Amino acid sequence: xxxxxxxxxxxxxxxxxxxxxxxxxxxxxxxxxxxxxxxxxxxxxxxxxxxxxxxxxxxxxxxxxxxxxxxxxxxxxxxxxxxxxxxxxxxxxxxxxxxxxxxxxxxxxxxxxxxxxxxxxxxxxxxxxxxxxxxxxxxxxxxxxxxxxxxxxxxxxxxxxxxxxxxxxxxxxxxxxxxxxxxxx
Length: 185
Description:
Layout: E1 5-16, E2 19-27, E3 33-41, E4 45-52, E5 57-63, E6 70-73, E7 75-78, H1 85-97, E8 99-100, E9 103-113, E10 117-131, E11 143-148, H2 150-158, H3 165-184
Parallel strand pairs: 4-10
Antiparallel strand pairs: 1-2, 2-3, 4-5, 4-7, 5-6, 5-11, 8-10, 9-10
């Protein structure tokens, strides 16, 4: 299979550092051209599933503007321009929870919207974590700090308590990674 080619980009709206809307001219592999393909530019971000030294998952219960009610959530945040995604993940974990972890596994990087862009999500699993400082988060949302067992996290995932798709994705990947690692030993 061949990829599409971007022939031209035009900004339509530059709202802030968090959102730019572009219009692309693209060429399909068969030569067909589309002159008005909408494209969203948003910052890349990280999500981290943290497991502490006792095997408990470090999570939050919080509100988000686009989510009705509360949702369970892992650590997450934007990657600063020029920042390495793993370093951003470690920074966000320390800021939001006060935890550090000796063991890190990349769970992959994923396009947020396969047709319209909207940034890239970088997913990580951090294990053996311990709290070394007080959280120093600048999040706008009110949030409740939680420690949850793996069984409780699995149940919460299956019952839709993680209401944002990147959060569900990173939790499912982390559970699979942990299970795969344990099956090898």
